[in-house]
Amino acid sequence: MKTVTSEAALIVEDDRTGNHVETLKRAILDNLNYIVARIPKRANSHDYFTAVAYTVRDRIIADWIKTIESYNRHDVRVVCYLSAEFLMGPYLANNLLNMGLEGPFRQAITELGLDLDHIIEQESEPGLGNGGLGRLAACYLDSMATLAVPAIGYGIRYEFGIFQQAIHDGWQVELTDYWLRNGNPWEIRRPMDGVDVHFGGRTESYIDDHGNFKVRWLTHATVRGIPYDTPIPGYASGNVNDLRLWRSEAPESFYFEKFNSGDYQGAVAGKTFAENISKVLYPNDEEIQGKELRLQQQYFFVSCALQDMIRLHLLFGRQLDTFHQKWAVQLNDTHPSIGVAELMRLLVDEHGMAWDDAWNITSHTFSYTNHTLLPEALERWPLPLFSSLLPRHIEIIYEINRRFLDEVRKRFPGDEARVARMSIIEEHGEKFVRMAHLATIGSSAVNGVAELHSQLVKTQLLRDFYEMWPEKFLNVTNGVTPRRWLAVANPEQSALMTSKIGNGWLRNLDELSRLEEYADDSQFRSEWAEVQRHVKARLANYIQAQTGVSVDPSSMNDVIAKRIHEYKRQHLKVLHVLTLYHRLKNNPNLDIVPRTFLFGGKAAPGYFMAKLIIKLINSVGEVVNTDHDVKGRLKVVFLPDYNVSFGQNVYPAADLSEQISTAGKEASGTGNMKFSMNGALTIGTLDGANIEIRDAVGHENFFLFGLTTEEVESTKASGYHPRDIYNSNPALHEVIDSLSSGQFSRGDQSLFRPLVDSLLNTDSYLLFADYQAYIDCQDRVDEAYRNHDNWTKMSVLNVARMGKFSSDRSVREYVQNIWKVKEMSDYSD
Questions:
Q1: Which of 126, 144, 274, 702 is least surrounded, with the fewest CB atoms within 10 Å of its CB?
Q2: DSSP 662
Q3: Mean per-residue pLDDT for 233-254?
Q4: Which has the closest alpha carbon to 25: 58, 51, 45?
Q5: Where are the alpha helices (DSSP H) in 278-390?
Q6: Strand, helix or coil at 288?
Q7: How buried is 15 (Cβ within 10 angstroms: 0-12 exposed, 13-18 middle, 19+ buried)?
Q8: H-type alpha helices, 4-125
Q9: Does the annotation count 635 as an active-site position?
């Protein structure tokens, strides 16, 4: 303890938890000395970051302990969010905000002769997710902690995260993301809470001493799951939840007997096998069938999580038959769906529970969120691979399936086609295990993530299951946390809003609606535009530093930043760029609004067409950016290494947000929410959450184009011939021919042929069908932007009407409609 003198009072504080500026300075220097083992004159910026992070963590842990004690005291039901990805982003700035410590820390660090913003920049980003799925999980953890919802996030502590993206000669190059290179001050290793996870082998049946039929799993390999805990503080709630990520290790990392006999590889083989499981995150869009490692990863973290829940449940003195009353387990897509079979195995085989009792618990424990309508993204595992890796689980799945199909036959007698469609085992040709079916059958609730998506889940993707259990299906539209995506990412706009309406919007985003009264205030619009100019200038500096490309901050920032995929149609954006380019080449005096076209996103390493789209973007930029005929009017930039830090720089500075996926393909989207929440106007199709955003911000403040989902289906059903559109549209014809001619590929006429041929012959995602509507809509954007004062008004209204899209609202809907848990405010001490 120490005594600190201030102008207000004499304060007695503990160096480990106190928040007075003098206490913080002493704590930072102590951590620099005793944890980092540096003296100030020898310390570098990262040393100071580590010292500051540990100082913040000390204060989080104090609240964490209180939170755990409160959960135990009230015997709460806990949400367990199972996700193969958690794209958390850098922690320091967000933790300072949520703990209410940014002010005192900034002053303390300034008095130490340092710069807090520079220290924040030193943090490595944990790239433990591909994009939307993992970032949504992170937003939900933030909201659950803020709302004081008892929760644990369970996932994998990948040693190497999503690859770092570099661009060489216009092509994506994947570099290793060793995010742990400099350590991670936020996590706490818990080896005493480790669990064993088994693979392979065979099963044998036997009769136990009470005459009951039992099955024993004789496993081939065992790995040890070691948990690493990261505290997740809520905003101004005093509540801290846990993100528990598992690292795979060998039970015995070195075998002396094999080493002594000369088998040097065998001496470490177990260590190699075990550590490979949590070694690297699989990129999205890779074909997963036959990828044994990915199935190993999914089973590994799910088994670890369920064993951990059971351990905690019994530790609290509860009976196992109440498990479902105390744990609500959310399956974030199909990756954790093996949990249905694993919980059955644990209850029946390990704890001796009768099948019916175990199934009642299991089916009331899980809920399943579907995140995709793309058939290739619905996991199916080849039966031989699955059976070899998890022989006991395939037996359990067969039994679940047998009982379920008996129920289907009772409900729909004589409909064997339906039975085949609904079976967990796909029987046609090669046999597969359908994980979405397992998740649906084993869950009490199934939800989509936008109103349109949820409807398509019911009418298309899982129609048979909806007809059997309509009460299971519901919608929870995604949301994003305003703490990360406004307060941290856009402090200038946040400060302006707070100066007018207070800071209540940070906990209740609906309060942004109070900004509407300022939309007609010319002085406020002027202040809003000035903030936007400042933010755009900052982004221009960031682009210059990252790419060497100089952009004009006064031009319109037209941004498409998301995972590169054909259905997201980044190449449709390129067609628009080329259309404008050819207009200017044909008429150099044409008056257009200057635009900076900013692209960002990663392509899965094995997805050739996505990587070719990146090459196309950079090749077009190479020509456009050096053509004096368009100088100052068009600039094309591909900004590499799309991640959370990227988003924090880009979302606040966008004028136009491109959400142009083929209708019916995007489940929800959350980038569309982040852009709009920061004041960008949206051009988009009626797809995913675009529909709800358009309804919220007003149709007059949204630039709509393109076919609807129904029109997409009818167009394809009636026979779609993209070449006919190409032949009948002179502007499109000119654009496509210029790609084929080598004009944008240094004379190489073959480089973009795969892309051009795909568009001319199949055009699976209907770019040509939407092309003219998109170009016409972009012309309307151009006209709207010329009236910049009105554009600013539309920007203000976009932000003011985004309250619905907070992840706090999403989590509350899960709490009320699916999880049935209480927020801690519902308890009385």
A1: 702
A2: P
A3: 92
A4: 51
A5: 292-315, 323-326, 339-345, 355-363, 383-389
A6: coil
A7: middle
A8: 21-34, 45-74, 92-98, 102-111, 116-120
A9: no
Is a pLDDT exceeding 50 seen at residue 8? Answer: no
Rounded distance between C-alpha atoms, residue 393 and residue 397, angstroms? 6
Phi-psi region of 273 (alpha: psi -120 to 50; beta: other; left: phi over 0): alpha
Nearest residue to 546 via CA among 166, 206, 202, 218: 166
Q: Which tokens is 454 given?
A: 């949820």
Task: State the alpha helices, DSSP H only, in 625-689.
Answer: 644-650, 671-677
Residue 472 annotated in active site: no
Catalytic-role residue among 562, 565, 602, 635? 562
CB 273 within 8 A of CB 553: no
Q: Which of 20, 565, 674, 801 is catalytic?
A: 674
Mean pLDDT, range 216-241, rounded to an integer: 97
**Euclidean distance between CA atoms 376 and 150, whole angstroms:** 35
What's the confidence (pLDDT) of residue 9?
39
- Out of 67, 670, 682, 709, the active site residue is 670
Decide if 707 contacts 513 (C-beta within 8 A).
no
Look at the block and give the residue holding tokens 């649906």: 440
Angle between helices 355-363 and 391-411 (to 10 degrees): 80
Is the CA virtual torsion 740, 745, 747, 750 positive or negative?
Answer: negative
- Please say if 674 is a catalytic residue: yes
Distances from the Cα of 17 to the Cα of 27, 94, 116, 241, 341, angstroms: 9, 18, 20, 18, 44
User: Residue 732 pLDDT > 80, yes or no?
Assistant: yes
Q: Are 397 and 441 in contact (CB under 8 A)?
A: no
Q: Is 5 assigned a catalytic role?
A: no
Active-site residue 216, yes or no?
no
Q: Which of 157, 244, 371, 458 is catalytic?
A: 371
The H or E element containing residue 768 is helix 767-786
pLDDT tens per residue across span 603-661: 999 999 999 999 999 999 999 999 999 988 999 999 999 999 999 999 999 999 999 99
Q: Please tell me the predicted confidence (pLDDT) of residue 1.
A: 47
- pLDDT (tens digit, 9 = 90+) per residue, 758-797? 999 999 999 999 999 999 999 999 999 999 999 999 999 9
Model confidence at 287, pLDDT cuts 50, 70, 90, reads low
Encode 380-418: b = buried (16+ Cβ within 10 Å), e = exposed. Answer: bbbbebbbbbbbbbbbbbeebbeebbeebeeebeeeeeb
Q: Position 612: which residue type?
A: L
> What one-letter code names the amino acid at 301?
F
Q: At what angle do helices 570-586 and 730-740 cross, to 10 degrees?
A: 100
Instruction: Name residue 145's amino acid.
Output: A
Task: Retrieve residue 254's tokens.
Answer: 């070195």
The question of whether 291 is a catalytic residue gets the answer: no
